[in-house]
Each structure stands twice: as structure tokens, then as C-alpha cells.
Amino acid sequence: MPRKVSHVSPADHDIVTAAVADAERHTSGEIVTVIAAKSNDYDDVALVWASVIAFIAMSVIALFPEFYRGLYDRFTGGWGHELTANQWLGTVIAVGVLKWIGVWLILLWRPLRLWLTPRAILAGRVRARAVDLFKVGTEAKTLGRTGVLLYVSLKEHRADIVADEAIAAKVAPDVWGDAMATLIERIRAGQPGEGMAEAVRQMGVVLAQHFPKGDDNPNELPDRLIEL
Fold first, then answer.
1. Angle in degrees, CA 200, 190, 225, rounded to 5
2. Residue 100 needs a FRET pair 20 to 30 A away by CA distance; which of 66, 133, 139, 164 works?
3. DSSP β-ladder status, 30-36 and 147-153
4. In a shared domain, residues 18 and 131
5. Are 31 and 131 part of one and the same domain?
6. Which run of H or E residues covers position 85?
7. Residue 171 covered by a domain
8. Domain of 139, in residue numbers
9. Closest-CA residue to 107 (of 156, 56, 42, 154)
10. CB distance 49 to 107 below 8 Å
11. Rounded to 5 degrees, what are φ and ψ at 225?
């Protein structure tokens, strides 16, 4: 039986669910909230770092061969035989391979891998994951195309908002800036539930301005916080 995912406390679930329900009392918009541990494993980033370090190591040996030949002689006590060109090339390649494996093993530690990932890549991967989740669970799931997804990725300390076409046509992405700023600030303070709830409240204000509550407006998407 798979282990239940739990990134936040039951109290946080209640806070976010209540915030979504309250926000939707004043708008025909439908807010979906999702929180995940991470958006990507960044295996390609580790691969690039390992390859770069290995290439640099081999390049340094190639640029300063006499220095490294001297190290070889000191290591063998002067009793080692003179390496042929092919043997020297094989040694350089072996050093590169060992460097590659060493860096790859070090970067199996996820916090370091995340730290070495450029901010633009982190933001891009979080955005891509948010869009994927939006397409699966929110896009075109409401009659008026008024669904909006609030996505939080904890390891990256990043979040994103993706809106359906009716909302995107009236609300520019930068309008969500205050909600996002509040959310990120609370996440960094270790309060993801409070941050998401406050972001939802601010999103609700924006949605109520452009999509006020109608007479016939069923609850088409779940109010509960979804954990991945």
C-alpha cells in the first residue's frame, strides 16, 4: 500500500480549504490548490555538472602535462616506467571518468543538486509542472472556463498561478503578484498553509472584481488542498 503523501498538517488543510470556500462565495471563479514536495528531479542538471567538472579536470591535465607527469613520478618514487602517449591518454580519460562518477554520486544529495540548479531553470520547471497539472485537473473543467490553479513546490520555494482562458483574458499575470509575494514569504517562514490561504484570499478579491458570483454557480472543482 503506497504511503500517504503529507507535506502540511491537517490544520493547514483546513485553513486552505476554508479560504477557498470563502473566496468562492463571492466569485464564479473556481480555485484549485495543489502542493508538492518538488517539481522535478533535475537529473539533467546533475549530468551537466558531472560532465563539466570531468571536462575541466581532463583539460587541466592536458594543459599542464609536465606538472602531472611530475606528480606521477613522485607517486611512484621515480620507479615507474615512462608512460607512452596512449597510456597517458588513457590515464587522462580515467581521471575524467572518475571525476564524473564522483560528482554524480555527490549530487545524489538532492539539496546540493537543487542549490546548484540555476534559478531560471527552477522557475521554468515549476511553471511547467503547474501547467501540466492545470491541463489535467483544471483547464476547461468549468462551464465558464473560470478555473484557476494555485501550485506550490516546496523544495524549490516557488509557486505559480495558472488560469483558464476566460480569466487569462481579463487578468494579466502580474496582477497575481501580491498574492505570490505573500505566499512565498510565508513558505520561507515555514507556514505553507497560512501562505496558501492568504494567497487564495487575495486571488478571490481579484476574481470577484472580474467574475462576481452569479445566481446559478455550482461548485465545479474541489475546494480541498491537493497534495502530490
1. 40
2. 66
3. parallel
4. yes
5. yes
6. helix 85-106
7. yes
8. 10-40+118-227
9. 42
10. yes
11. -75, 130
CATH number of the domain where residue 222 is located: 3.10.310.50
Give φ, ψ of 117 to 5 degrees.
-85, 125
Residue reference for cell 483547464: 139
How far apart are alpha carbons 23 and 122 in whole angstroms? 30
Determine which helix (DSSP H) or strand (DSSP E) holds 159, and give its type and residue range: strand 158-163
Question: What was the pLDDT predicted at 137?
Answer: 80
Per-residue pLDDT reduced to its tens digit, 12-70: 899 999 999 999 888 988 899 999 999 999 999 999 999 999 999 888 877 776 666 66
36 bridge partner residues: 153
The grid coordinates of residue 125 equal 520547471
Residues 108 and 212 in one domain: no
Task: Read off φ and ψ for residue 38, nearest 5 degrees.
Answer: -155, 165
Q: Is residue 138 part of a domain?
A: yes
Mean pLDDT of the 172-189 span: 86
- Grid cell 607517486 is found at 75
Q: What would the pLDDT profile of 72-99 be if each residue is shown by its tens digit?
A: 666 665 555 565 667 667 777 888 899 9
Question: What is the length of the chain?
Answer: 228
In a shared domain, residues 33 and 103: no
When pLDDT is cut at 50, 70 and 90, the band that residue 1 belongs to is very low
Concatenated DSSP letters of 187-226 = HHTT-HHHHHHHHHHHHHHHHHHHSB--SS----S--SEE
